[in-house]
Amino acid sequence: MNSLQVGLAIAGGLILMGVIAYNTWYARRNEPRQAQPEAPPPGDERPEPVAGPGASMAEPERVEPSFDGDAALPPLGPLPTPDKRPALDALIDVIAPIALDGRVVSGDALLAALPATRRVGSKPFAVEGQAEGASEWEFPVAGRRYHAVQAGVQLANRTGALNEIEFSEFVAKAQLYADTVGGAPEFPDMLPEVMRARELDQFASQHDAQLGLSLRARSAAWSPGYVAQQAARLGFVAGAVPGRMVLPAAQMGLPPVLGLAFDAQAALAEQPEQAAIHELVLNLDVPQVERAQQPFARLCEVAFALAQAMDGVITDDAGQVLHPEMMSAIGTDLEQLYDTLEQHDLAAGSPQARRLFS
């Protein structure tokens, strides 16, 4: 082998090594980012036990791991239960009183008479009673006795307004229920109620707002574990379905303040560390969350915090990059929406608003 062949062989080897090195670097560069082990909080290091003469070799005390990712968040304080208002409200429901002719009916009887399906078409159907010695309406409770009963159906929700067919179905269902408990229902006229349902539905359609912000990876994709870790540091917890996390409300039982969603198939992948997520969506259901919780401000704070930590860019549904001044303009519009909802006794986060915008 002459010197030319040797030189070509060396050059070829160097080129091959360069290609392999580049491919390795490129693969690592585009590998989804992985969750990293959490560092223990300062002062939590435990010294190794030293066995002295006659010391026991028993296993040291086990300490369960704890999550400390939300240490920077302000304390939530006590978690009170939601305000228990009547399920039925004349503002958003058709209500039919059921006369009992002075009789008292047990809660057990009222519960036993409930229909198997508590819906009328796409609208919720509900029954309430007034217990002896009480003035508030409540869902029947076993063991209590009730001197007044009423049935109702919701006028509108996000599926549309109550129509004539649904109103007739409500009359039939409420009549059957009244017959079972030995009462006599009194129904309002259908046409005015259907017209009221259409007006309420029109108002709701014009003042419904569900905001969504997309966070897109600038370069390397994210693994599901990486997304979950970064979101958990801001207070998010796993949702009811794969690929969804929520920021809980301060009060137990209320809708979450914010939602976070990403590809469910990535969350269900057999090897989630290899699943690549290029985009996630932060969403705020405006009428579901009360104004006092400042949900839009928290949406902006979370979005920009995640963008910085995950090397992402914030965009709208059309892919337009959103800057802080644009978010401020959206916030101004939301304040006007909050005012309008409050003026119509449908304040965001109230039981009536949560039912109407559902």
List the helices and strands and how they pair.
Blueprint: H1 3-29, E1 93-99, E2 105-106, H2 107-112, E3 119-120, E4 123-131, E5 137-138, E6 145-154, E7 156-157, E8 160-161, H3 164-181, E9 184-185, H4 190-206, E10 210-217, H5 224-232, E11 237-238, E12 244-247, E13 258-261, H6 264-267, E14 279-285, H7 295-310, E15 312-315, H8 324-343, H9 351-356
Antiparallel strand pairs: 1-6, 1-9, 2-6, 3-4, 4-5, 4-6, 7-8, 10-14, 10-15, 11-12, 12-13, 13-14
Descriptive account of the structure:
Residues 31-80 are annotated as: Disordered. Keywords: Cell cycle, Cell division, Cell inner membrane, Cell membrane, Membrane, Transmembrane, Transmembrane helix. It is a single-pass type I membrane protein. There is one protein chain. By secondary structure, this protein is of the alpha+beta class. It folds into 2 domains: 93-205, ZipA, C-terminal FtsZ-binding domain (Cell Division Protein Zipa, Chain: A); 208-356, Cell Division Protein Zipa, Chain: A, CATH 3.30.1400. Helix content is 34%, strand content 19%. The chain has 9 helices and 15 strands. The strands form 3 sheets. Strands 1, 2, 3, 4, 5, 6 and 9 form a 7-stranded antiparallel beta sheet that branches. It has a 6-stranded antiparallel beta sheet with strand order 11-12-13-14-10-15, with helices on one face. Strands 7-8 form a two-stranded antiparallel sheet. A hairpin with a 5-residue loop joins strand 11 (237-238) and strand 12.
